[in-house]
């Protein structure tokens, strides 16, 4: 025990390592710095000096991303989010995590130091969220080259490289934010994770993915708090998707909100989409499916299970256009009318399966 305590005490303050590693980055030795960031932070974690580990990882992630070292920066970002969970840092904005001694990295209770309280750094939950946001903003936003001559080998090569780079950015940022969302769900946020983090992930996935999966983007937007931005993304998607996909995207989004019991944002999203379509002089997709969801939004404002079932039967052929709609409607029936699903285990674990399987 004594030997272990000595090992913890002799670890230098994080800033010494941060300054040293910054010099390695400036020299252009990105790979060498990466290995040192990982090993240094691991030593602090082993000594339970989580604040120091987080400081090192945040610095490394930001510096690597600033230097366009996306894979390295994403790896350190992911380690930062995973360390938040290891340290059990609270997400609750009304609480503060335990302070740590600047000399030994222990909490005040474990350290037993006679030094005054201000010697211990209080690690605020709001500060933690700000640090996650700071790393997120370091992920580049670069557009894929447009108006290239695909018959030209050089242009085709440029496009191929740009698409590959975009996929790397999206995968790296997604892994980081998914880990941060998981941490937030485990340590104080909504059971689906932080709405703010979901909004960040949805926005980055939509704006940076060379091939947008609107279903996955919707999964995160409906767990966020920005129906207006979601509506803008949907209207923008309407101009890019294949014929017949526009009404599917809108209805899917509405049903996903409703499957979470969120009638307010489902209505707000529909209103925002209609407003934006009108402002841009576009046509709102008119189909039996959009007609169904308009009736559904009205029905769910009342205790009208028979009408709900009648709508499902009347519009069955339209609902069958996408298999997930049946699952979502079953969840809606349970949320709004207490109808138990045929298999009560269905749907359990969908959230973390989706988070890890994208």
Description:
It is a single chain. The protein contains 18 helices and 2 strands. The chain has helices at residues 2-10, 14-26, 30-46, 50-66, 70-86, 108-111, 125-138, 153-186, 195-208, 214-221, 227-238, 246-259, 263-279, 288-299, 305-314, 316-319, 323-337, 350-357, and strands at 96-101, 120-124. A two-stranded antiparallel sheet has the order 1-2. Helix 2 runs antiparallel to helix 3. The longest helix is centred in the middle third of the chain and has 34 residues, at 153-186.
How do you describe this structure in short?
This is Protein GET4 isoform X1. The protein has 358 residues and is mainly alpha-helical.
The level of helicity is 55-70%
Question: Main sheet?
Answer: 2 strands, antiparallel
The first-to-last residue Cα distance is: 44 Å
- Across the major sheet, the strand order is 1-2
How many E-type strands?
2
- Multimeric state: single chain
Strand content: under 5%
Please give the radius of gyration in angstroms: 24 Å
Question: Which key terms come to mind for this protein?
Answer:
Protein GET4 isoform X1, 358 residues, 67% helix, globular, mainly alpha
Can you lay out the helices and strands and say which pair or pack?
Blueprint: H1 2-10, H2 14-26, H3 30-46, H4 50-66, H5 70-86, E1 96-101, H6 108-111, E2 120-124, H7 125-138, H8 153-186, H9 195-208, H10 214-221, H11 227-238, H12 246-259, H13 263-279, H14 288-299, H15 305-314, H16 316-319, H17 323-337, H18 350-357
Antiparallel strand pairs: 1-2
Helix pairs in contact: 2-3, 2-4, 3-4, 3-5, 4-5, 4-7, 5-8, 8-9, 9-10, 10-12, 11-12, 11-13, 12-13, 12-17, 14-15
């Amino acid at each position: 025990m004594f030997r272990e305590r000595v090992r913890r005490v002799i670890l230098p303050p994080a800033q010494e390592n941060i300054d040293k590693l910054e010099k390695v980055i400036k020299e252009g030795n990105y790979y060498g710095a990466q290995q040192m960031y990982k090993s240094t932070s691991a030593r602090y974690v082993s000594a339970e000096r989580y604040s120091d580990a987080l400081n090192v990882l945040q610095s490394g992630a930001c510096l690597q991303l600033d230097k366009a070292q996306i894979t390295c920066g994403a790896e350190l970002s992911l380690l930062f989010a995973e360390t938040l969970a290891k340290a059990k840092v609270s997400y609750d904005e009304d609480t503060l995590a335990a302070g740590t001694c600047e000399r030994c990295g222990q909490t005040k209770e474990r350290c037993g130091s006679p030094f005054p309280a201000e010697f211990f750094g209080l690690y605020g939950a709001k500060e933690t969220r700000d640090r996650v946001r700071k790393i997120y903003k370091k992920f580049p936003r670069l557009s894929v080259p447009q108006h290239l001559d695909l018959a030209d080998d050089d242009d085709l090569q440029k496009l191929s490289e740009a698409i590959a780079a975009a996929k790397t950015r999206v995968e790296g940022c997604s892994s980081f934010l998914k880990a941060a969302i998981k941490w937030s769900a485990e340590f104080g946020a909504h059971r689906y994770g932080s709405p703010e983090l979901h909004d960040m992930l949805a926005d980055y996935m939509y704006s940076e993915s060379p091939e947008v999966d609107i279903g996955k983007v919707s999964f995160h937007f409906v767990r966020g708090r920005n129906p207006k931005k979601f509506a803008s993304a949907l209207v923008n998607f309407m101009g890019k998707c294949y014929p017949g996909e526009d009404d599917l995207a809108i209805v899917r989004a509405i049903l996903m909100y409703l499957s979470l019991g969120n009638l307010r944002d489902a209505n707000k999203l529909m209103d925002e989409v209609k407003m934006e379509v009108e402002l841009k002089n576009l046509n709102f997709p008119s189909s039996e499916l959009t007609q169904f969801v308009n009736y559904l939004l009205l029905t769910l404002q009342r205790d009208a299970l028979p009408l709900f079932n009648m709508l499902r039967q009347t519009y069955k052929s339209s609902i069958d256009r996408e298999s997930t709609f049946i699952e979502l409607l079953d969840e809606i029936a349970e949320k709004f009318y207490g109808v138990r699903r045929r298999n009560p285990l269905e749907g359990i674990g969908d959230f973390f399966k989706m988070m890890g399987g994208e």
